[in-house]
């Protein structure tokens, strides 16, 4: 069966590539994927899917399609994200973005194409499948505050679903290599901000002011002691200050400073302790330097934690499908993904599919203005998603 799945996917490789190029040329940002949604719906209808659900969070973006909806067997969901990034493409492929200031620079065009390919493969064998498959084309992954995954979950996309799987194109892995990791796979992503209120004055007489820039600068350094001196060295934690803004000119001490950043970790228990640790340090420095501070912390996305048994089985399927040499265990990344919201609720796996290929020039990292992928990996992704679904049913029966 695996060889059959692989062959069907490969037979559709030109169509899958054409889909990727079409979506790459017509990118749309989070919760504005209107044309993207129409195109996905159109292709699914041509395959024979009926009763498609369109729209998420009151916006006509995102598509959900069910295969074998009347069957009573188990149900697995396959997920792809569909939004692009607000950035200008600088590369010049034939399928270059037609929308100024918007680009598929993270591989979501590939994700759409691979999931459409999987839908095509599995639709061709629907009568042989003893259960249901839900195809989730999710909007707004790139906007964590307005997560499409969170919206879809709140609207019931996981009702009746027993497991979920997804693939992410990964620029640092060689083309065609599948990367997996049971357990924590991608980090949480939280945001924080702080306003330091001081007392402005002339730069020539700093003793008459309460300098918020000096206080903020001390905070940036001191916050790093959370990781270096308060957290177990074997835990992976990042506390980053990424934006500082204060003052208007060279000789005026301002009356306030603003800073913001992100916190990443794989450990939910550690994650829960970070806000208090940060606030304690910030308040202590504010008091010591005669300033006041306002600190806000927002939990945004949880870590993406792969179910151990499901992931190890999916890796076995990948080896059987693609060969042992093309599947490897990878280290987790501190990048974040709202796929973790699904995996908080049901077992499943999220895996990487490499696309780095020097011969084809697909060497730039995600979010690079000349980012592109090796199209030859796309049918492999469609085949792998299909094979994971088929294996899920085989094990359930």
Automatic annotation (TrEMBL):
Protein name: Amidohydrolase
Entries under Pfam families matching the protein: M20_dimer (PF07687), Peptidase_M20 (PF01546)
Superkingdom of origin organism: Bacteria
UniProt enzyme class: hydrolase
SUPFAM superfamilies (UniProt xref): Bacterial exopeptidase dimerisation domain, Zn-dependent exopeptidases
Taxonomic source organism: Thermovirga lienii (strain ATCC BAA-1197 / DSM 17291 / Cas60314)
Residue span(s) of domain Peptidase M20 dimerisation: 191-283
Cofactor(s) needed by this chain: Mn(2+)
InterPro entries assigned to the protein according to its UniProt record, in alphabetical order: Amidohydrolase, Bact_exopeptidase_dim_dom, Peptidase_M20, Peptidase_M20_dimer
EC number(s) per entry: 3.5.1.47
